[in-house]
Design brief:
This protein has nine helices and nine strands. With about 290 residues, the chain is of the alpha/beta class. It has a domain of about 150 residues: 3-Layer(aba) Sandwich (Rossmann fold). A seven-stranded mixed β-sheet has the order 1-6-5-2-7-8-9.
Length: about 290
């Protein structure tokens, strides 16, 4: 399988099927900037069984007071929500061990995510970085990539009973408010499609969303968000539809900037409000958003 076959551009809705596309994602590091800020993110915050790794204590910070949104937050036409750290906090290790299983299968020896920064990154990019860190040649793992991604989805679905997921404060209220206003709700997430939908289904949020922007066919978060924005506008039959991204990492902010849309950062992950001040609006919880 070629790189193009492994990573065609794909954005799914709840009714459409996956189809091939035309994105050539062969990566030349000299020519292209990874807009997910992957290389700048910390290693802390990925909790898994058998590890003492935990989100670092954050120094108190003042919420930046600027608001450069181009309209009121609930007046956009479509919304793209990140999942982990924005909508949900997964306290289990199901997704982590899906990575470990895929890495070990392709490498032919035990490989895990130790030493790999994961916040703000997307699943295929995490695999790529982990293989590189472990010294696994690209020509060994890339031909297996499609089957590895499929295997990760299967692993998570098979272990969904082990999920321990907390829905973050204000999420249900925010989604309900926007749904009542007739807004198009979607996700823009680094999760693979099967994994993202499995998490949302487990905690009863799946039915809020009709649009899915997932990482299955991307290695760069900016490309994924740009594709999701295009899909939202196509769904609305409006090439100028206003789209708002909501996320909890600098990677979400950079991806929204790349796609040319506004972004709200919510300091519910490992990043402080001060570290998210490049967003158009920074809040400490979705509960802070006014609802009239």
């Amino acid at each position: 399988m070629t790189d193009q076959e492994a990573f065609p551009r794909l954005i799914s809705t709840s009714t459409e099927t996956q189809a091939g596309s035309d994105l050539d994602t062969s990566i030349n590091v000299e020519q292209r900037q990874d807009l997910s800020t992957e290389t700048q993110l910390p290693t802390e915050g990925w909790s898994h069984k058998g590890s003492s790794t935990a989100p670092p204590e954050r120094a108190p910070s003042t919420i930046p007071t600027h608001n450069s949104l181009r309209r009121s937050w609930d007046s956009y036409d479509a919304y793209l929500f990140d999942i982990d750290g924005t909508l949900l906090h997964c306290k289990d290790a199901v997704h982590y061990f899906a990575f470990c299983d895929a890495l070990t299968r392709a490498a032919g020896r035990p490989v895990n995510l130790d030493g790999i920064a994961v916040q703000g990154k997307i699943d295929p990019g995490i695999l790529r970085d982990a293989f590189h860190h472990a010294g696994v040649p690209e020509q060994q793992w890339r031909p297996q990539l499609a089957s590895l991604l499929q295997g990760m989805g299967e692993h998570v679905e098979a272990h969904a009973a082990e999920f321990d997921i907390e829905v973050l404060p204000g999420v249900r209220e925010t989604l309900t408010h926007l749904q009542r206003r007739g807004k198009l709700l979607g996700v823009g997430t680094g999760n693979l499609q099967r994994i993202g939908w499995a998490k949302l289904s487990h905690c009863g949020l799946r039915d809020f969303f009709t649009l899915g922007g997932f990482s299955d066919r991307y290695e760069m978060r900016g490309d994924m968000i740009a594709g999701a924005v295009a899909a939202a506008r196509a769904t609305l039959h409006d090439p100028e539809a206003a789209v708002l991204v909501l996320g909890d990492t600098p990677g979400d902010i950079a991806a929204a900037r790349f796609a040319g849309v506004d972004v709200i950062a919510i300091a519910t992950g490992i990043y402080t409000a001060a570290q998210l001040q490049a967003a158009d609006l920074v809040i400490s919880s979705l509960l802070e958003l006014p609802r009239t």
